[in-house]
Structures are given as C-alpha cells and as structure tokens.
Input
Amino acid sequence: RTQTGGITFEPIQLNLLLVAKETYNFLEGDAIKKNISIQLKIHPNVYVEADENMLKTILRNLLSNAIKFTRENGIITVSSAIKSNQIEVCVSDSGVGIPEEKIPLLFKIETNSSTKGTSQESGSGLGLILCKEFVEKHNGKIWVETKEGIGSQFKFTLPLT
Output
C-alpha cells in the first residue's frame, strides 16, 4: 500500500517522548519475558513533524527488533539528539549484532529475509523495509551501526517542529 499511495501521509506536531512511551507500553510484555531493561532517554520537550501512525510503526518495528535480538537480561535504549534542524532517534541494544556482510541487505526488499531472534522469535523480514519507506517519506534517513556480538544502533532522522 505504501508503494501505490494507499497509505495517507498526514504529518502533525508530535511529542516524541509520548509516542516512544506508547510504543514502549505496547512492547513491554515482550521485554519482561526476556528480562530486558528498556530506557527512554528522550527530552520531554522534543516535538517532531511526523505522521503519527508512521512514527509509531517505525518505533514499534525498531524496538521489537531490538527485543528480538537482545539476549536475556540485556539493555535497550531509545534516545534522541538534535542535529541541526532534525532530530536523530537511536534505538540501541546490547544484542547479538549483525554480520557485516548482511548490513547492505537490511533495507532492501529484493534481498528480504528473516532471522530468528535470541529466543527463536520469527518475523516477516519486512519491518526494516517499511521503516525505511516511512522515514524517507518524512525526508529523513535511516541507518545502522552494529558490531557482531556487541549490539546494534538503528538511527533515523525526522524534521523538528
């Protein structure tokens, strides 16, 4: 539907921390099952210009992946930093990391594949592709910084209001 314009794009002013808290509350049960600590390090007065459903989808997919690939007793942090006229959001985990050869394939639908999580969780492999489309719809960028065996940081930018 995103490819054919079947999803509307209606950016509004949103409090980033409130949207992140809502996403955290939605996924908290999955984190509790693995005894994973999730920290929200977002300033309470940061507002972004974003489509609410798309932003929730981006955060939900990134946070869900972080939980999926973090071992029991791990830590996940969702943070933000102002960079010029944009906000950079980072979902950082102490998970398994991503092999270097797989990094260029993560956001490409042609090479879509799913990897089992640390507790054998499965997925469609489409979450990151959707995140990329939604971030780019906001004229932002998404990328990953990762070290195999240490963890990953998925980062994306959105316009500030």
